[in-house]
């Protein structure tokens, strides 16, 4: 696989993520957003794709982001302050949740408004279950980000649960898709929070968006 980061990049990212990372606030409406005074990287993905688990693995904390076996647990934009240098934003899951249609519509509106109008948003990490590959709802989000010129990276999760040959097929399929997407980053991030695969590289990817 293409090597994206140097040892120096990885070391700087390790230091950043070893420092403080604190929950700041949960945003249920855009009027509650904090000042756009630093870079933001948002985590998006279908319900139960493992967003909160990945945030915890990246920061080396077990309870920073609440995880749940119930899809749709994250119901707002959850802001985490990474060392005063960057906000990580855990977004509501999409695609499935045991909530009312109105609540789901409200979330979708919040997500769309946030993605379209946040000047400090540097990148959206679209988390995709490595066992299943891209779903229609992922492709919809990719199209919306292409239209609004917000760059994004595809991050495959739970890859420890996939046989190597099956993972290769999923990766080839995703790679073929992102070739045609204007705002997609060309390299796919392959991760397993459980086995800590790809975590250092993803830390470096996130750290690369810090404003210097």
Kindly describe this structure.
- About 3% of the residues have low confidence.
- This protein has one domain: 3-Layer(aba) Sandwich (Rossmann fold).
- Strands 1-3-4-2-5-6-7 form a seven-stranded mixed beta sheet, with helices on both faces.
- β5, α4 and β6 form a beta-alpha-beta unit.
- The protein is built from six helices and seven strands; from the N terminus they run αββαββαβαβαβα.
- It has 212 residues and is an alpha/beta fold.
Q: Which terms would index this structure?
A:
alpha/beta, 212 residues, Rossmann fold, globular, 7-stranded mixed β-sheet
Low-confidence runs: 68-73
Shape verdict: globular
The SS-based structural class is: alpha/beta
Question: Which band does the percent of strand residues land in?
Answer: 15-25%
- What's the main sheet like? 7 strands, mixed
The tally of domains stands at 1
CATH superfamily: P-loop containing nucleotide triphosphate hydrolases
Write the topology of this structure.
Elements (H helix, E strand, L loop, with lengths): L6 H12 L2 E7 L11 E7 L5 H9 L17 E6 L3 E5 L10 H17 L3 E9 L6 H13 L3 E6 L6 H15 L10 E2 L8 H9 L5
Helix pairs in contact: 1-6
Concise summary:
With 212 residues, the protein is of the alpha/beta class. It has helices at 7-18, 51-59, 101-117, 136-148, 164-178, 199-207, and strands at 21-27, 39-45, 77-82, 86-90, 121-129, 152-157, 189-190.
